[in-house]
Amino acid sequence: MEGSSVFLLCLTASSGVPLYCRSKRSSRQLTFSVIGSLNGVHMFANNQDVLLTSTRTENSRVLWRTFHESINLIVMSCDSNASDHSLNRLLENVFSTMVLVIGLDDLMNIKNVERLKKDLRACYKLIDSFLTESEKIGDLTQCVDCVISNDSVILQECLDGFTQAAESEFGCLLIGGKVVVATEKWWRLASLDAMLLCWLVSSLSPHSSRDYPVYLPQGSPTVPHRLLTFQLVPGVDVCILCGPSPSLQKVELELVERFWKPVLDPVKSCLRLQLRSFPISLNLHQGILGFLLINRDLNKSLYTVQVHPFEDTQRSDIKCILEHRRASLRSFYTLTMLRYFSPEHHDGKIQYEEAFPEGFTHQAHQCYVVSSSHKCYATKTDLHFLFLLFKTNVPTFSMRAIANKTMQVFTKEFNF
Ligand SMILES: *[C@@H]1O[C@H](CO)[C@@H](O)[C@H](O)[C@H]1NC(C)=O
Ligand SMILES: *[C@@H]1O[C@H](CO)[C@@H](O)[C@H](O)[C@H]1NC(C)=O
Ligand SMILES: *[C@@H]1O[C@H](CO)[C@@H](O)[C@H](O)[C@H]1NC(C)=O
Ligand SMILES: *[C@@H]1O[C@H](CO)[C@@H](O)[C@H](O)[C@H]1NC(C)=O
C-alpha cells in the first residue's frame, strides 16, 4: 500500500454487489478479491452475530459501517494519523452525500442495481472532495466553514432582500464553499445539511447558474428541494434553497443583477478572504500559525492555517508546511474533542488520555500539547471552542492569554 492512500468502497448490504470505489493518492484499484475479502469478513461476522466495526494492521486501518441495512461502506486508510473518529466522520459524510443526491428511498429500496450505480456517479465529485485535504474543516467538525468579511452588514442586507424576492427563506453567499453571510433560517438548517450544501457547491465545476435537486439528509431525506446557485464573480456564488417556484430563469433574469450589481465591489473583495478567512486589517499574535474557532450555537466555524499570509508566501516549501499545519490542527481537534471536551461520559466517568485518579469527575476547559514542531492550545466556553496552533517559540505559559485575546477579538469585535 502506498504512503497515505485511502480506499473507499460502497456495496449493497444484502448481496455485496460493489456500487463504486473511490480512492485518494493511489494509482491502483483494489482487486475484486480484496473487495470480496473486505466485505466477506464483515458478512461472516454478521452471520455469527458479531458486529465488526474496525480493525488495524501495522500500516493500515479498516472501518465498516452499514447504513439502513441497505448500504455498506468500507474505508481502508494507510494514513497513520487517521483516527477511527475521522474515518467514521468520512463514512457518515459519504453516506449523507448519497442521500443528498439520490434521496433515502432509493438507497433503502434498491430495485435496480445498475441504475443505482449510474445515479451514484453524480456523488463522485462531492465524495472525492471529502477524500482530499482542503482549506475547509467541516468534514471533520460537521460545522459550516465561514469567513469574516468587513462588508458583512451590506452583504447580509443584500442577501436577505434577494432571498425574500426569490420566495425563499434559505439563502447564503459562498466563497470557495465557505459562508460569507447567510439568512437566519439558513443557520437553523441541521448543520450537517448546511455543511453538505456548501461542500456540494464548491465541489462542482464552476457554472454561471444551476438548478440542482437536493435531499436534506437530516431535514428532508425523502422529499427533494431545489438548490439554485448563481455565480456573481468567479469563486463567489449565491445560493438559495426553494420549492417548485420560482424558475431558475426568473431569478437569474430579474433578481441577480438587480440585487447584486450595486454591491459588486464588496463581493469581489470577498475573494481576498479565501485563505485567511478574515480581513487582512486584523492582526493576530505573531506566534499563531493557525486556528479553528467554533460557534457552538450555530455550529459554524472559522478555520485557517495561514494567519500571516505575507510571511508564508516567501517560503518555497509552503505547500508541505500548510499540509503539516492542517494535519496537526485536525489531529489536535480530534484528540481534544474525544478526550477532553466531549460531553459524553462513559459509565459516568470521563475517559481522559491520561490515567487520572479514580473518581476524578470534573470536565476540562483547557488543554494543550507541546511537540517538537509546534504547540497547540484549546479552550472552551459556553458558546465557543477555540483551537490554536502555535510556533514552538511561544512560551507555554503565555498560550492561555493569547487564546483569550484571540477569542475576544473574534467573538466581541466581529460577533462570531
Ligand atoms: C476593514 O475595516 C478596517 C476598519 O474598519 C479597515 O481599516 C480595513 O482597511 C478594512 N479592510 C478591508 C480589506 O477592507
Ligand atoms: C450542532 O452540533 C451539535 C454537536 O455536534 C449537534 O448535537 C447539534 O444537533 C447541531 N445543531 C444543529 C442545528 O445541527
Ligand atoms: C502525521 O502527523 C505528523 C504531525 O502531526 C506529521 O509529521 C506526519 O507527516 C503525518 N503523517 C502522515 C502519514 O501524514
Ligand atoms: C479573558 O480575559 C477577560 C478580559 O480580559 C477576563 O475577564 C477573563 O477572565 C479571561 N479569561 C481567561 C480564561 O483567562
Protein described:
With 416 residues, the protein is of the alpha+beta class. The protein has three domains: 6-132, Beta-Lactamase, CATH 3.30.450.70; 144-273, Beta-Lactamase (2-Layer Sandwich), CATH 3.30.450; 288-413, Beta-Lactamase. It is 36% helix and 25% strand. The chain is built from 13 helices and 16 strands. It has helices spanning 32-47, 84-102, 104-108, 113-120, 124-131, 138-141, 152-165, 191-203, 248-260, 264-269, 309-313, 318-339, 399-413, and strands at 6-12, 18-24, 54-56, 61-67, 71-77, 144-146, 170-175, 178-182, 209-216, 220-233, 236-242, 288-295, 300-304, 366-370, 375-380, 384-390. The chain has a six-stranded mixed beta sheet, with helices on both faces. A five-stranded antiparallel beta sheet has the order 2-1-5-4-3, with helices on both faces. The chain has a five-stranded antiparallel beta sheet with strand order 8-7-11-10-9, sandwiched between helices. Strand 1 (6-12) and strand 2 (18-24) form a beta hairpin. Helix 2 (84-102) runs antiparallel to helix 5 (124-131) and helix 7 (152-165) packs antiparallel against helix 9. One 2-acetamido-2-deoxy-beta-D-glucopyranose binds at residues 150, 279-281. The site of one 2-acetamido-2-deoxy-beta-D-glucopyranose has 4 residues, from loops. Keywords: Cytoplasm, Cytoskeleton, Signal. Its main location: cytoplasm.
